[in-house]
Design brief:
The complex is a heterodimer of chains A (about 70) and B (about 170).
Chain A: H1 2-21, H2 44-58
Chain B: H1 2-18, E1 33-36, E2 41-43, E3 51-57, H2 64-75, E4 83-89, H3 94-103, E5 109-112, H4 117-122, E6 129-133, E7 139-144, H5 150-162
Parallel strand pairs in B: 3-4, 4-5
Antiparallel strand pairs in B: 1-2, 1-5, 3-6, 6-7
The chains are: A mainly alpha (about 70), B alpha/beta (about 170).
């Protein structure tokens, strides 16, 4: 039992040490991540227009993701 | 149990060797040879005896749009017998670097290193990064990131290093 626990401990330590080291993206390897289409929101202008249409049609303010009041007249 | 310990030690050693170590100030600059975009081989050793500014850049690096023209101007302000700028492009797609240079042409030497072994040898911690190497081939300054205001301090340091003969800096 004690031996198994030690083995488990070693495996956990090993996994925590090497699991992350193998997947690190170096600063000079960020070309793919820097691509325009990798952005969380690739077209902020289009998103702003879509949000405006959404909250105007729905009669809400606060756009999406937040509750809000208001007359809904914009 | 013994086997598990062996695997753990071996894994640790592997992880340590996989981690790029940043070169220390005062240490010898890692030697390298790479091709220009015209496929001419260039070595850092070719510039021994001169003060060399090595700049790592990429087409996707926004500050590089500012830094490349400023380094190009900087290169023209010192005699070529004393000072050289060597830029290392780290784009994984060589065509991206070429396109960037067409839009932002520079007169200094620009090498391509899509495999990334040169930045790994220098242990870059960010992009863009640059290194100022003295006449003896030792790293004297390391710059991470770029601000246009950094240029005047860089000029002063280049002037200081040029003023010192080899084996005296």
């Amino acid at each position: 039992m004690r031996r198994n626990l030690r083995l488990l401990f070693l495996i956990l330590v090993g996994a925590s040490l090497f699991g992350c080291a193998a997947t690190e993206v170096k600063p000079w390897e960020r070309g793919q991540l820097a691509r325009w289409d990798m952005r969380w929101d690739p077209d902020p202008s289009q998103t702003a227009i879509a949000n405006h249409a959404y909250f105007s049609k729905e009669g809400t303010s606060g756009e999406i993701g937040a509750a809000g009041g208001g007359c809904g007249c914009n | 149990m013994k086997a598990a310990k062996t695997v753990l030690v071996a894994g640790f050693c592997l992880a340590v060797t996989m981690t790029a170590q940043a070169v220390e100030l005062g240490a010898a600059a890692p030697g390298f040879t790479a091709s220009t975009f015209d496929n001419k081989p260039v070595s850092l050793a070719d510039f021994r005896g001169k003060v060399v500014f090595v700049d790592f850049w990429a087409s996707w690096c926004s500050p590089c749009r500012q830094s490349l023209p400023m380094y190009d101007k900087l290169a023209g302000e010192f005699p070529t017998s004393d000072f050289a700028v060597i830029a290392v492009n780290v784009d994984e797609e060589v065509t991206d670097g070429k396109k960037f240079l067409t839009e932002h042409p520079v007169k200094y030497i620009t090498l391509q290193n899509p495999q990334g072994d040169i930045p790994k040898a220098f242990g870059l911690s960010g992009m863009p990064s640059s290194y100022l190497i003295d006449r003896d081939g030792k790293i004297r300054q390391r710059y991470v990131g770029f601000e246009p205001t950094d240029i005047s301090a860089l000029k002063n340091e280049i002037t200081r290093l040029i003023g010192k003969p080899a084996d005296a800096s």
